[in-house]
Write a structure and sequence with these properties.
about 950 residues, 29 strands, 40 helices, ATP hydrolysis activity, Arc Repressor Mutant, subunit A, Rossmann fold, 7-stranded parallel β-sheet, isomerase, alpha/beta
């Protein structure tokens, strides 16, 4: 070992160096080598290094050293993490050091007991691990504020995650409030990956000087992109899983990769995919667990511990597992479908190879051409360190509104200029005009959240200040959860977020839940309940709403457009997809089969004599009322252009225009009166400087803006005032009209533009089109590339197999339904049983008759009617129904029992179902479903 190898440790005192030897740290890890010197010198520092490379110790060893040198009376250091699960991990990780060095380490978050909080206030630990929200609460407590005056160091873990959110903007102000209390504080940021280190460093320090210490993450990863080839084994597996062979091939590949490694994380992009894949692994009895945010805390801890102990070989997980939760050593990471962003790929693949100098290995399993080309572009960009910048929320006014009551609660009467000065020291608010700040204060005054004395220019508390502060510690929006109920059976099948219901849900719309597809029948806002029925042809429908997708950045989508541009001349010159793929393999990390499958789509585009959409050529195609603009610009630019098109074409036609966007296409459903030339005219004639105004005009009537406005105005304390002025829940129209000229409306619009749209670059696209720098060509009919997006808006695992999944579910449900069997010959024998226990040809054990009626389990009145000697009209009708049922069972046996067990299917409909000629059993259950849906739609007329 050279002197250089241990040079970083020489910056630490003898006690900490002794702890290093005891802990087995013989030499520093790369981030420790780079970052311990400036940290020991007290400099503000951003440390960027892979997960598992010792970032925590990098930050904390110099902090421990300083605390030993100058013991604090209150809290000496805060370690702030975005997740409570990380709190738990950090305490376990830091406790050993604390015990050895005789420094107290403790955790405080929302679940910390009142007793424990009291102990921390009386006897503050030297190091407190906490969350951004708990820090907000601590800043207002009198005894805790006293203890916070001793803080000399703050470590922010996963700083890139916070920088791009309103939680981070709130924390940035919180750190300035802490600095007002404690004086200069050393701020240390930790992150696995950052696209713009300098700006994230400025965010961390409030614009003060910041040392950047970065390990090149891209050179430390080994990623392969693979689309599995369908084999005979997949055909067999498809039958076993009741799914399609291509999905079976994905399951097989993932299963084989898990088997080849000791411990594998399998990242997916949605919780729904995690559940759908998890159910298939459960059917195969594989030791693979599921981990996502909708599971209970206990369930998550259980699978984390089982994975760490080696009881599980794989863990299916979503983005929450990106953030360094300790699950032990991971030796491989699988990403199912494109990770959408370079940042996410680096975060996820970085979980593998938790040894010093180890390469993180990973496989991206792709499912279709768009997916593959996007994944290889991301993998190439990750290798070359081309990471997206963090999108910092600049000047979010609801965060300002959230922080002002905190000032007043903690400080008492406060000059407005002091509050403004502290807020604008925080990096996201450095350009906030004082006039805007005053408008926010005035709104809070109107809502009685704070008192604003304009003559003294000072802020004070009101009766509502304390209640507001503690009800609004978090910038994570409170959302209602709507229960989803099957209208036919009244059983709950899941929940939906309020955002989904407000932005999308209306009767007739289709969505996926629990791996199945449902059509919305009715929405009850008072009860927060959505009633649904399974849809008629789930295999053939694409959901109209795909959830909050991870947006694909313009640079990634643009590289897909570049790949097409490279392939086009080769294919035109006679090369086949295989030859092009061999050329691409020199630049992109994928096998020949995977690249050939992706290039096959491009080959088919030219065979169809259709122009190739590239980064420099847009293709407008039309068939009937469907118009698709092929534009590889990413989600946000395409969403912006799509809104301009739908808004202006809708105004021109006098009716609404349907819009769906993905990173490569803008799809419009237009009235027949809209000509293709009208679309071209909008693109060629719309002033690029008017894009923002056109979209804002369209937003004024939108439910999406109303939803955001409701959340923002709640942070201003305004929503309650407007609700009290009216009667209960405000309609979207009233809310938008009432708040239009307020800072709340301004913030809601800013948030939509920040999170969903990219006005500047969409305007640039129009400028390039109008200056002929960007080519625009048209094509009559649909093209292979244009139709490639039809599957991009759905989870492959769910809709594609929803038919098989739904049929299987219905079959199991009917088999387990209870029924009454009644002999209509002797009328004495009856039995209550499950459908699956009924014989192929049921008969009465008393008299031997096969005239057995199959009745609903609650049909006791029918039994009484059959047995009655004298019958009124109603009883006669019930008896007739029982006899028809018995006749059907006598003729068709158990098949009739199954059909009549269905919801709303009586003997008449059951006979029609049974008498229909069909090729397989699935058709039988499909017909039952159809009748159940018909009953569900008309139930209200019969009830």
């Amino acid at each position: 070992m050279t002197d250089g190898d241990v040079a970083a440790f020489t910056h630490l005192g003898s006690t900490v160096r002794g702890a290093l030897s005891e802990r087995g740290f013989s030499r520093p890890t790369p981030p420790q080598q780079l970052a311990i010197p400036p940290l020991s010198a007290g400099q503000q520092t951003l440390v960027i290094a892979p997960t598992g490379s010792g970032k925590t110790e990098t930050a904390m060893l110099p902090v421990f050293d300083h605390l030993l040198e100058d013991p604090p009376e209150g809290f000496g250091a805060l370690y702030v993490t975005p997740l409570r699960a990380l709190n738990r991990d950090m305490r376990e990780r830091l406790e050993w050091w604390g015990e050895y060095l005789d420094l107290a380490v403790d955790v405080r978050h929302g679940d910390t007991t009142q007793y424990q909080r009291g102990k921390q206030a009386e006897n503050p630990p030297d190091v407190l691990v906490t969350t951004p929200e708990t820090l907000q609460a601590m800043l207002t407590g009198e005894r805790l504020r006293g203890a916070l005056q001793d803080v000399s160091h703050v470590v922010i873990d996963e700083v890139h995650e916070l920088a791009a959110s309103k939680r981070g903007a709130q924390l940035a102000v919180g750190l300035e409030r802490l600095q007002d209390l404690a004086g200069p504080i050393q701020r240390i940021g930790l992150s696995a990956t950052v696209g713009d280190p300098d700006e994230v460093g400025q965010f961390l320090t409030g614009g003060r000087p910041c040392e950047i210490r970065e390990i090149d993450v891209g050179s430390n990863i080994d990623v392969t992109v693979r689309e599995p080839e369908i084999t005979d084994e997949d055909e067999r597996l498809a039958g076993e899983l009741m799914t399609e062979p291509d999905t079976a091939s994905h399951v097989r590949l993932i299963r084989n990769l898990v088997a080849k490694h000791e411990s594998t994380l399998i990242f997916v992009n949605t919780r729904q995919t995690a559940e759908a894949l998890g159910s298939r692994f459960t059917e195969l009895d594989l030791p693979i667990g599921v981990h996502h945010g909708s599971l209970s805390k206990e369930a998550r801890i259980d699978v984390e511990d089982r994975f760490k102990a080696g009881d599980l070989e794989g863990l299916l997980c979503t983005s929450s597992m990106e953030l360094g939760i300790d699950v032990g050593r991971v030796d491989h990471v699988i990403q199912y479908q494109s990770p959408r962003q370079v940042t996410r790929l680096l975060q996820r693949i970085g979980r593998a190879g938790h040894r010093q100098d180890a390469v993180s290995s990973g496989t991206i399993v792709t499912t279709r051409p768009d997916d593959t080309l996007e994944a290889v572009a991301i993998a190439r960009r990750a290798r070359d360190g081309e990471v997206e910048p963090a999108a910092i929320h600049e000047g979010s006014l609801d965060v300002v509104a959230n922080q002002i009551p905190g000032f007043v609660q903690s400080r008492g009467s406060t000059p407005l200029c002091e509050a403004y000065e502290t807020v604008t020291r925080a990096y996201p608010f450095r350009d906030l005009p004082e006039e805007t700040f005053r408008e926010v204060v005035s709104e809070l005054h109107r809502n009685r959240i704070v008192w604003f004395d304009e003559s003294e220019d000072s802020l004070g508390a009101t009766g509502g200040t304390w209640q507001y502060v503690y009800a609004n510690l978090s910038m994570i929006p409170d959302e209602e959860s709507y229960e989803v109920h099957d209208i036919a059976s009244s059983t709950q099948i899941g929940t939906l977020d309020e955002r989904f219901v407000v932005n999308f849900a209306q009767p007739g719309e289709v969505f996926i839940q629990r791996g199945e597809m449902w059509r919305i029948a009715e929405i009850d806002d008072e009860e927060c309940r959505v009633k649904v029925s399974p849809i008629e042809d789930p295999a053939g429908e694409v959901p109209s709403w795909t959830g909050q997708e991870i947006p694909v950045p313009a640079a990634v989508a643009g590289e897909v457009g570049e790949i097409r541009a490279v392939a086009e001349p080769q294919l035109s010159a006679g090369a086949d997809a295989g030859a092009v793929s061999r050329e691409l393999a020199h630049r992109y990390p994928a096998d020949e089969y995977t690249l050939t499958e992706a290039c096959g789509q491009l080959e088919r585009q030219l065979e169809a004599e259709a122009p190739m959409p590239t980064v420099d050529r847009l293709v407008l195609e039309r068939q009937g009322r469907t118009i698709v603009l092929n534009a590889p610009f990413g989600h946000m630019i395409n969403e912006t252009l799509g809104r301009v098109l739908s808004s202006l074409l809708g105004q021109q036609a006098g009716s609404s225009v349907g819009l769906e966007t993905d990173p490569y296409r803008i799809e419009l459903e237009v009235p027949t009166s809209v000509a293709t030339s009208d679309v071209l005219a909008v693109l060629e004639d719309t002033d690029p400087d008017h894009v923002e105004a056109i979209i804002e005009l369209g937003l004024k009537r939108s439910d999406a803006l109303a939803f955001r406005l409701a959340q923002v105005s709640a942070k201003f304390g305004a929503l309650k005032r407007w609700q009290n002025a009216g009667s209960g829940r405000l309609s979207n129209e009233r809310l938008l009209a009432a708040l239009e000229d307020t800072p709340m409306y301004e913030e809601a619009v800013r948030e939509v533009f920040h999170e969903d749209l990219d006005v500047d670059r969409a305007s640039d696209v129009l400028e390039r089109l109008q200056s002929d720098e960007l080519e625009l060509v048209t094509h009559r009919g649909r093209t292979p590339v244009g139709q490639g997006g039809r599957s991009s808006g759905k989870e492959l695992l769910a809709p594609e197999n929803a038919d098989a999944s739904v049929i299987k579910t219905v079959k199991e449900r009917l088999q387990n339904d209870r029924i009454i069997l009644l002999c209509t010959h002797c009328t004495e024998w009856q039995a209550k049983t499950k459908v699956r226990r009924v014989a192929d040809q049921p008969e009465c054990p008393d008299c031997g008759s096969t005239r057995i009626a199959s009745l609903n389990p609650w049909a006791d009145e029918v039994v009484q009617a059959v047995r009655a000697e004298e019958k009124d009209d109603e009883q006669a009708s019930m008896t007739e129904r029982a006899y028809r049922s018995a006749s059907l069972v006598q003729s068709h046996g158990r098949q009739a029992v199954i059909a009549m067990a269905a919801r709303g299917v009586g003997p008449h409909n059951a006979a029609r179902i049974i008498n229909k000629l069909r090729e397989d059993e699935a058709e039988f259950y499909r017909d039952i479903l159809s009748k159940e849906r018909e009953y569900a739609r008309t139930q209200s007329f019969w009830d």
